[in-house]
Protein 1
Amino acid sequence: MERWKGRVALVTGASVGIGAAVARALVQHGMRVVGCARNVDKIEKLAAECQSAGYSGTLIPYKCDLSNEEEILSMFSAIKTLHKGVDVCINNAGLAHNEPLLSGKTEGWRNMIDVNVLALSICTREAYKSMKERNVDDGHIININSMGGHRMVPSADEHFYCATKYAVTALTEGIRQELREANTHIRATCISPGIVETEFAFRHHNSDPEKAAAVYESIKCLKAEDIASAVTFVLSAPPHVQIGDVQMRPVEQVS
């Protein structure tokens, strides 16, 4: 991670869970991290904790609604003005709604596509543009995916969400291929966790907290820090090594 000291990383969905853990880990390793979310109160608190801990990097909170392209473009413009550009883009933000394929509401489907697929694609495009403008040839795009992007969960509540994550699997490989066609050494990686104990299930099952709690009580789950460790592992790989897809799940997880 030594070569990333002082470099700029964007982490989307950095207020809680995996995003917060990744942001903290990168700041520990000396990176300047722009952490974005719709609500930055928790990111501001995390930034203060990182500073108090004496970490060599810095965490810069940025308020951004990723379902709004204009806000994303404004964020990248601000990063260019204040920090020159993005060297590492961690597309972490994602959400799920209980909207089955046969009875779900279009609004919920659209929101999942906007955040899980379109925002990821827009951030990737803008991050690559930023790297290209500055002749950065060793940048990295990391998409936080899901095991739901590799097999369909047998639950109607999850089917549309899984479809968006299958899209992330395809997009990551497409990004890798386009980066090769562009004759660049910028890398693209997909990290696909199984069940991770975060606020995700409580947001997904917001009308049934007992169901959400049961998700995490059934087995020993992954922790957000486990995913952060996978991110630093990927970033630490030698520049000639392309890590395409990291699939990780709890030992006790069946599928």
Note: The chain has one domain: 2-248.
Protein 2
Amino acid sequence: MTGKYFFSETDIKSAWEQVLTAFWQRYPNPYSTHVLTEDVLYREVTSDNLLLSRRLFTKTNRLPRWAERVFPGNLSRSVYIIEDSVVDLGNRSLTTLTWNVNHAKLMRVVERCVFAGEQDRPLWTRLTREAWISSGVFGLSRPIQEFGLARFKSNQLKAMKGLEHALSNLQKASAACHGESAERNKNLNSASKTQKPQQYI
């Protein structure tokens, strides 16, 4: 695929199982207000124990000022995104492939992410992200691709902050659950100590 290419690798300081849970709970979050809707279109567990999912997202599609002068004013300000994902519990990996359904001639963005658990570092997850940005607009493909790459970089930073937000919420919920459990056990132990022994005749 011609156009712009993006590649990055990120180490996430959380176990893969936590990252997987947070991935499904990313939206809504304060860093991704451009994500308007999220719908599951398809989900299946295969015979070899893979979880396949397809989701549809609606996101805002604000054009740069120079593009607003070039393209018609009735151009949709929303973009529809398809996300296919494969969860492989055996290999502790989550692979996603996303692409835009509409505005594909104006700009097509295809993104592939792999969240992989690391055997030698069980409390870390490696995220490998790739993206391909292309445009079919004659004479303007280069500036459109440059803009697309810049916007993608900005959005992927927001996506990471959104994932970190979801992970933080999970950790807070887990801590609160453990705290309630400890308090419950403490109260039970206290009650058992103060209770008088039952007498039998």
Note: The two ends are 88 Å apart (CA to CA).
Protein 3
Amino acid sequence: MAAPLELSCWGGGWGLPSVHSESLVVMAYAKFSGAPLKVNVIDKTWRGSRGDVPILTTEDNIVSQPAKILNFLRKQKYNADCELSAKQGADTLAYIALLEEKLLPAVLHTFWVENDNYFTVTKPWFASRIPFPLSLILPGRMSRGALNRILLTRGEPPLYHVNEVEAKIYRDAKECLNLLSNRLGTSQFFFGDTPSTLDAYVFGFLAPLYKVHFPKVHLQEHLKQLSNLCRLCDDILNSYFRHGPVAFSSMNRNQ
């Protein structure tokens, strides 16, 4: 019998199995590849000090970061890309790099830096799911981490401050969404009728932006104008997550 695969991650809301993009990437890939994950969502029993999830735990391994987790699953013969050509594999890597450079900063800004969104939606949601006194500390730490990540990728001299890069962040994100929409076209998934790694990444990055109810919605409004990307998110939710995330548990390992 294969060793159990347990994924520690943030939980769901707004019809999503997780509101956390990187957790969603792994959960979607597991669905596409048939990996039998047991999902342990962070709750009041959590004893971690950081929000560094998702984390995949097996009998012999602890793996973090989506790319490393997906590579681990592929080595365990759970491969959602086995039917892709070499060119499609190269395109997958190029589009994932584009997502991380052009779209992720805007997603992070929407959740963690935009004040109205952070104080009315993001902070209360995350704080309600972690134990006191960590609930007073961790959301702010995650917000600062998101800001640092944005500045690391987009804060090129002389644009060192987030206010100076905000316009560029959202301009780049909208261009990225337009490119994704054009690439998807009328296809069910990015490479035909079967979902792959790229679909998992696009779903993970877009679904929270699409579904979470924010007071400031400028990027969300642009996404909702791209009906094929919204349809992709809805189709994945309806086809793969109608009955829950993967195999669900509210009890979490100590991290």
Note: The beta strands are 5-9, 37-41, 55-57, 62-64, 248-249.
Protein 4
Amino acid sequence: MANLEENVSEGIDWGEKAVVGEKHKGTEHNADWTGTLLKNAHIGLPSPAHDVVKCSLISGECLYFHYGCDGQDDRGWGCGYRTLQTMASWLCQSWAPPPPKGKCRPPPSLPEIQHALVAMGDKLALFAGSREWIGTFEAALVLDYYYDVPCKVVHVRGGGVELERAAEELHQHFQIQGSPVMMGGDRDNSSKGILGVCTRPGGQGSYLLVMDPHYYGPRLEMTSVQGLGWVSWKKVGSLDHSSFYNLCLPQTSRK
């Protein structure tokens, strides 16, 4: 399956030695800074409507990864990596049964994600150290590579009605699997973390709980993250009707 969200590769200085080697090694450099990230940034967010009849959210905890949160300036190309890191943080902190204490692999860094895709043969060697985007398909490969978690990739042919029909699939995912979902598309190619879905009665539409990784700046408190809309409810009908969308759903209940 081809990469659906591509960008032109461009060499950059990562400011650190790239991690090469076995997939469960070389994690020390990103084990400490994750403790400064905001946890469960969606908690306390008001319901998107007064007449919601069904609402399904992630279970457990995840971290808010965003542009530059580790000191790496990835503006314009790193949103898919950040959403992937948020999904990985959920696996580490909330996946049941939990791994032995101290054995949980922290979310992979951007260089580790790129090297994993090269090691699997999905990308050429030039991909490592580039500014090339990744999408839902690459996220599925990386989660399987580092955490042995398979993912279901759902293709939605368009926004609007087609995306509304996918709401029930998301309800089932959050109720059974409980993990964050990655969403990306073609015209709307901005990666989004989906933490929940709410549906109104009588075909009045659904809302997605979106964690937007495009924030760049110092750490924000939860009130600011929510108040500025970086974590917010988005009406499904407000998304691009002319864009297809792909959803990456980690299948955690199989383990």
Note: The longest helix spans residues 79-94.
